[in-house]
Predict the structure.
Amino acid sequence: GPPGRASAAAVASMRVSAPQIAQLLVEAQAEVNDANVLGETPLLLAVRAPAGTSLGLVNVLLAAGGKPDVADLLAGETALMEAAYRGDVEVCQVLLEARADPSKKNPEGLTARDIAAENDHSQVARLLRTVCPTADDEEMLRRAKPLWKAVEACDAEAVSSALDGLADDARAAVDVRGGIDHGGQTLLHVCGANAAHDDAGEIARLLIEASASPDRQDVGGKTALELAVAEGLALEEGHWG
């Protein structure tokens, strides 16, 4: 057939077979973090695989303990930086969920977010922004620490007290993201994930009254409502706007 069709067929075949072969090698106890002479680990090579084949390979290697933050010797770039350069949103999401560090910099001083923006990959840049707090965000997170602790403890009384203590800054505090350690989640995400707790509804009401946005997505693309539904609860529409 025409070269284009043959190439497409080859890529389709590789998309299926490459992860299967990788899984067999992992099960045979292949070392997933050994690097080649260029410092490239199997995970980094997987991210650099042809379009459409990377995601399956990356999933296999991460599940087997692949380390996402190893940089190669030639470019000094990690798997997340490479995925950002390629504009691969799905691979970036998987790496972030595996706790890849978005704050790491290459020898030129660029983070994965910088690389995505430099190459006009706006969707990836937006994703990375959810786990890369600005200096202002970090300061707000520091000030809102009692509020985060109260929400995580599902203590409605402590949440109310912490919001009062933040005064005019409460509106900014309820929407600031928790960074990579919290998967880019906001306080409403934390509340949604704890929806089975008795105080969760009251805490959600307090946060929404303080202008928390119910539509923000975490690094996995989930909203607070999706997390709450995943807990098996049918929340009243009035609680979530």
DSSP finds 15 helices and no strands in the chain.
